[in-house]
Automatic annotation (TrEMBL):
GO BP field: N-acetylglucosamine metabolic process
InterPro entries: GlcN6P_deaminase-like, Glucosamine6P_isomerase_CS, NagB/RpiA_transferase-like
Keywords: Isomerase
Protein's name according to its UniProt entry: Glucosamine-6-phosphate isomerase
GO molecular function list: glucosamine-6-phosphate deaminase activity; isomerase activity
PANTHER family documented for this protein: GLUCOSAMINE-6-PHOSPHATE DEAMINASE-LIKE PROTEIN BT_0258-RELATED, GLUCOSAMINE-6-PHOSPHATE ISOMERASE
Keyword Thylakoid on entry: no
Amino acid sequence: MRHEYYYYNKEELLKNPKIPLIVMEDNPAVFRSMAEEMVEEIKRKNALGEKTVFICPVGPVGQYPYFVEMVNEQNISLKDVWFINMDEYLTDDKKWVPKDHPLSFRGFMDRTVYTKIKPELVMPEEQRVFPDPENLGHIEDVIQQLGGVDICFGGIGINGHVAFNEASDTMSPEEFLAQHTRVLEISRETRAVNSIGDLNGALDDMPHYCITIGIYEIAHARKIRLGCFRDWHRSVVRHAAYGEKTAHFPVSLLQDHPDINLKFTEFVANLPE
């Protein structure tokens, strides 16, 4: 079966998508835009004396250097900001990989974000939250106590996953959307693609398990902002924007969200000649 939307040119792609699409010049433009939205929301909530709650990815990550620079240059306090990270790789016995593991998302956030922000501005450690295989209900408790998530930032995997909410051909959309934070086995597609991007193709060294925030928590964020920038994102964006709502391609289940958009580059918008 041929999926016509995979072959839409830029004009066709932007004609009538089911998710609002924003085309930007290049990768830096996408990442800077994400960082600017993070900063603007924090400044807005700080001015109101309110907490800011983000769900944050490690992939895409290009927004973080811009974010760190803006926070430091503008002296923006993160003392009332909570970063709830989407996911983390696990060992074969389903424990967090060590922070010094090259794939550890906890290690990445420490090295790239938290230690780069001025100490007087950065949020306390207890406000840097990761899903924990030893306490699956923690994320939901934190979100409930804080009054919900302001913005969920993220990307889209090759099989349509958001965070590590891997595709399913057996679940109904309703069943899939009801899934909360959990431990799961990473799909073969995701392991293969991530090994190319993160381990130079060392597939045998890719973890088999992960913990992920649920699609339920993502779908209930007040805003969802997704970024796409890789060559294979050409088909992912087209599927997200025109495919049917199915658990086979999880991001499609977010098409009805009241405040979602998908930013991507001219490179992704245009198919090869």
